C-alpha cells in the first residue's frame, strides 16, 4: 500500500531548475514541507559557519610562495572576531604593528608599485580559501603581460574592504585590489568579492571603488572576473580614476562566439 504524503507540490516547481532561489517549495498544511525546512536550516548553518571559520592564512601564504610571490601577513585594528563583527570601523584600519611593518618595508625598499593585491577574510574566509588562488592564477599572467610592478601580496586578518586603501597608501601603490569574502547568503556561503581602487588612500568612500562580486563556481567565473578587473585597471591607468566615474564597459565574447559584445549595451550592428 502506497503511503500518502501530506506535502503538496507547487505547480511552478519546474522553475527551480532555473534559479537557486527558494521558490515553489510546496506546502504541508500551512507549513513548509520537512525537506524544504531542513534544507533552509542547513543553508543557514553553512552561512554562519562561513562567517566564523578561521582564516587559513598559513596555507594561503605557502601556496602564494610556491607561485614565487612575496607576502606580508597583517592584522586589522579589530583584535578578534567578536570585535570585528561588532566594530566594522576597526576592520577598515590596520593595527599599529601592521602599519609599522608596511612603513618599514616601504622605507627599506624605497620603491613604488603599480599594484598591491590584498586578501582579507571579510565575512567568509571560506570564499577566500576556495577561490582566491584559482582567480589569482588567471590574473597574474595578465598582470605580467602588462609589465606592472607588483607589491607583496598582503594578507589581512579581520579585514574590511577599506583596509586596502591604507595598505596601498603605505606601500605607495598606484592601484589596490582586495579579494574578500562577501556576506554569506542562504545559497552562496562562499562568494568572493573584488574591490579595485585607483590612487588608494585612507578616507576614501565606496564611491571611489569598483566592485566585482559573486566570484565562485556557481557565479562569475575566475576568467571573466580577471577579464573585467584587467579592463578596469587599464582604464583607470589611462583616465587616472576609479569608482562611479569608471564604468565597466568591457567587451566580452558573445555566447554565440560571433565576436565581441557587451550584454549590458544595445547591439549596434
Describe this structure in words.
- The chain is an alpha/beta fold and 269 residues long.
- It has a domain of 171 residues: Ethanolamine ammonia-lyase light chain (EutC) (Rossmann fold).
- The chain is built from 8 helices and 8 strands.
- A 6-stranded mixed β-sheet has the order 1-3-2-4-5-6, sandwiched between helices. A two-stranded antiparallel ribbon has the order 7-8.
- A hairpin with a 6-residue loop joins strand 7 and strand 8.
- The chain is elongated, with a radius of gyration of 22 Å.
Shape from CA axes?
elongated
Number of helical stretches of at least 4 residues: 8
Query: The biggest beta sheet, please?
Result: 6 strands, mixed
Beta-strand proportion: 15-25%
- Distance N to C terminus: 63 Å
CATH level-four homologous superfamily name of the domain at 77-247:
Ethanolamine ammonia-lyase light chain (EutC)
**According to CATH, what is the topology of the domain at 77-247?**
Rossmann fold
Extract low-pLDDT stretches.
Answer: 255-261
Walk across the major sheet and give the strand order: 1-3-2-4-5-6
Instruction: Kindly state the number of beta strands.
Output: 8
Mean pLDDT: 87
Which characteristics define this entry?
alpha/beta; two-stranded antiparallel ribbon; 8 strands; 269 residues; Rossmann fold
In short:
This protein has 269 residues and is α/β, with parallel strands linked by helices. 38% of the residues lie in helices and 17% in strands.
Amino acid at each position: 500500500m502506497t503511503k500518502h504524503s501530506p506535502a503538496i507540490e507547487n505547480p511552478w516547481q519546474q522553475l527551480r531548475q532555473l534559479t537557486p532561489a527558494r521558490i515553489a517549495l510546496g506546502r504541508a498544511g500551512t507549513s513548509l514541507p520537512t525537506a524544504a525546512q531542513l534544507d533552509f536550516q542547513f543553508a543557514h548553518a553553512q552561512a554562519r559557519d562561513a562567517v566564523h571559520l578561521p582564516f587559513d592564512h598559513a596555507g594561503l601564504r605557502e601556496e602564494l610562495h610556491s607561485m614565487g610571490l612575496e607576502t606580508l601577513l597583517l592584522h586589522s585594528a579589530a583584535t578578534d572576531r567578536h570585535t570585528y563583527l561588532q566594530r566594522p570601523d576597526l576592520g577598515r584600519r590596520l593595527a599599529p604593528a601592521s602599519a609599522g611593518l608596511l612603513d618599514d618595508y616601504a622605507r627599506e625598499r624605497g620603491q613604488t608599485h603599480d599594484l598591491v593585491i590584498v586578501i582579507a577574510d571579510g565575512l567568509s574566509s571560506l570564499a577566500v580559501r576556495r577561490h582566491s588562488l584559482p582567480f589569482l592564477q588567471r590574473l597574474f599572467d595578465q598582470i605580467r603581460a602588462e609589465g606592472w610592478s607588483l607589491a607583496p601580496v598582503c594578507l589581512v586578518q579581520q579585514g574590511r574592504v577599506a583596509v586596502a586603501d591604507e595598505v596601498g597608501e603605505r606601500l605607495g601603490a598606484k592601484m589596490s585590489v582586495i579579494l574578500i569574502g562577501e556576506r554569506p547568503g542562504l545559497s552562496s556561503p562562499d562568494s568572493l568579492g573584488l574591490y579595485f581602487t585607483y590612487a588608494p588612500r585612507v578616507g576614501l568612500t565606496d564611491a571611489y571603488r569598483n566592485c566585482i562580486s559573486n566570484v565562485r563556481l556557481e557565479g562569475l567565473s575566475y576568467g571573466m572576473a580577471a577579464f573585467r578587473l584587467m579592463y578596469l585597471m587599464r582604464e583607470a591607468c589611462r583616465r587616472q580614476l576609479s569608482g562611479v566615474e569608471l564604468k565597466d564597459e568591457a567587451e566580452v565574447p558573445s555566447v554565440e562566439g560571433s565576436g565581441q559584445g557587451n550584454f549590458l549595451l544595445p547591439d549596434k550592428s
